[in-house]
Write a structure and sequence with these properties.
The protein is an alpha/beta fold. The chain folds into two domains: about 210 residues, Peroxisomal Thiolase, Chain A, domain 1, CATH 3.40.47.10; about 130 residues, Thiolase/Chalcone synthase (Peroxisomal Thiolase, Chain A, domain 1), CATH 3.40.47. It has eleven helices and 14 strands. The two termini are about 25 Å apart.
Amino acid sequence: MSASKAADFAITGIGMRTSLGHDSVQSCASIRAGITRFQEWAAFGGSGDDVLAIVGSAVSPDLGDRDWVEKFEELTAEPLQEAIFMARLHTLLDADSRRRWGVYLAAPSLERPGVDEENAESFREDLRDNALFPMEPSEIRLLSTGHAGFLTALRQAMRDLAGGPLDVCVVGGVDSLLQTTYLDWLNQERKLKVADSPSGLIPGEGAAFVVLETLDKARARGAEVLALVTPIAAAVEKESPDGKTSSPGRATAAVLRETVAATPCDPLRIHRVINDLNGERWRFLQWAMACSPALSRLAPAWRLWHPADCFGDVGSATGAMHACIAVRALWKSYAVGDAVLICNASDSGERAAASVYSEHRAQSR
C-alpha cells in the first residue's frame, strides 16, 4: 500500500450533474433531503412475458439508451463549467497563458460492453483534439478503474502538482450505466437489482469535477479554498469479489486507517464517512468486516452516507460525486465535525480513501 506525497492540496471549485440536479447546489440539497428520482427504465432482455423491467436513475432531460461515450459531452459540459467558474480558473488562465492545467478523468473502459468501436475511436480523437474542453489543457489523462477511479486520478494529479509541471488540475468522473447492452451484461453477472435478484445495484449516470491546486498557489492567486484534502491512501484487495464470496477487506481497512491517521484533526471530530455501498452484497459484507476495527477511533455516533440511495450507482463518477458532496457539506457547515472521510472500492480490487477537511475548523493534534 502507498499514499501520495504529503502536501497541502486545496479544492477551489466543484461541479455536478446528477439525476437530482444540473449543478452541485441542487444535487447536494436533494441528496441531503433524501430525494430520489428512480423510475422504471425501458424493458430489455427478452420478449413477451420474459421481458425484464428494471429501475434506473437518469439525468434530466433523459439522454436515452446510448453508451457513455455518446453521452459524454452532455454529461460533462455543465459540471466542468461550474467547477472552472467557481474556482475562477477561466480568469487565471486568460490572464496568464503560461499557466499549465491538466484534466484527469475517471471514466469507464472504452472496451466496455455496449460501446461501439466507431464511437470509441471518435472519442479518442476528440480527446486528442481537446474539442471537449472550454480551454486547451496542457495534460489530459483518462483512468478506467471503476468506483476508485476518481481517487486514483486525484492521487496522480497530486503527484503532478507537487512535482511542478502543472499549476492546477481539474479532476472528475463520468459514467452512464443506462445502456441496454451494458445493462444486459450487468444482469448476466447478477449485479442488477431486479425481481429475482434483490441484492444488486440500481443503475444511474452523471458527472462531477473538482478543481485541485496546492494550497500555496490557491492562496497566492486569492482563490476561495472550499476544503483541503489529504493524500490518497490506495491498496488492492488480493481476493477480488465475484458476487458470491467476499474478501476479508484487509486493503479497505488499511486505507481507512491510513486516512484517519493523515487527517489533521482529532479522529473524534470525524463524524461523517461516505462510502459506495450500492446494494451489492459483497460490498456490504466487506465494508462490515473492514470498518469496525479501522474506524474505532472515530466519534461513537459517526454517520455513514451512501449517496447511491439517491442517484443510483454512477460507476466511474462515484468518487467525484462523493468528493463534491463532502466539500459542500463542510463548506456550508451542515456536516457535523471537521472532516468527511471518503472510501471507494472497485470491482477489480482497487481500494482508495481520503479525507476532505475544513481549512478553518481542523485543528492540529
